[in-house]
Specification:
Elements (H helix, E strand, L loop, with lengths): L2 H38 L9 H5 L13 E6 L2 E8 L2 H6 L11 E11 L3 E2 L7 E6 L5 E8 L7 E2 L5 E8 L2 H4 L8 E2 L4
Parallel strand pairs: 2-3
Antiparallel strand pairs: 1-2, 1-9, 3-8, 4-7, 5-6, 5-8
Length: about 190
């Protein structure tokens, strides 16, 4: 191999490695900007007006949670309102007037990590369940009050999903770490 070819190969290698490092740090920087914007409240997106939701009787819960899918949590069948986009995950259950016993909010992050939950603009207490990609419950926080805001809650074990249920759901159904969540019930 000629010296010029070696120099070109080394330069290409350096360019590829440098480009990869630059992309990595650019993504990290952007994620940090998004986290800071969320903390400042810049991603607050109201899907429905508060007056519309406050007047909804509990038996008409589908007005607030229209798109649900059936899942089971430790053998307990529930309907899951899925939050799989950044705005949906940021909004979560904020400003909702209630959460029925048979409905949960399922946050799908699409990656394993330390996914924190806070009680910003919440109107009621909830149980929070962290779930690994395989469906195993890895951590539980029970009866988390809206008064805990701005504190955030995270699992000490990496998780893929987070489930929010009405306070008392975990104890009423004897759910514990190690139990399974089945996302596809077909």
């Amino acid at each position: 191999m000629k010296t010029a070819e070696r120099i070109v190969m080394v330069l290409l290698f350096i360019a590829l490695v440098g480009g990869g490092v630059w992309i990595y740090f650019a993504v990290q920087y952007e994620q940090e900007n998004v986290r800071e914007a969320v903390a400042r409240g810049e991603y607050e997106i109201s899907v429905k007006s508060e007056e519309q939701e406050k007047d909804v009787p509990p038996e008409d819960w589908r007005v607030i949670y229209p798109n649900t899918v059936p899942i089971t949590i430790s053998g307990v069948p529930v309907q899951a309102s899925v939050a799989d986009t950044i705005p949906e995950r940021i909004m979560g259950l904020s400003d909702t007037p209630f959460l029925p016993d048979n409905v949960v909010k399922l946050f799908s992050f699409g990656t394993a990590g330390e996914h924190s939950i806070w009680m910003k603009d919440m109107n009621y207490s909830i149980d929070i369940i962290w779930v690994a990609e395989e469906g195993e419950i890895v951590h539980i926080e029970e009866n988390v009050s809206p008064d805990t805001y701005p504190e955030s809650f995270a699992s000490p074990v990496s998780s893929w999903f987070v489930i929010e249920a009405v306070a008392g759901f975990v104890s009423n159904n004897s759910i514990k770490v190690g139990d399974q969540v089945v996302l596809k019930t077909s």
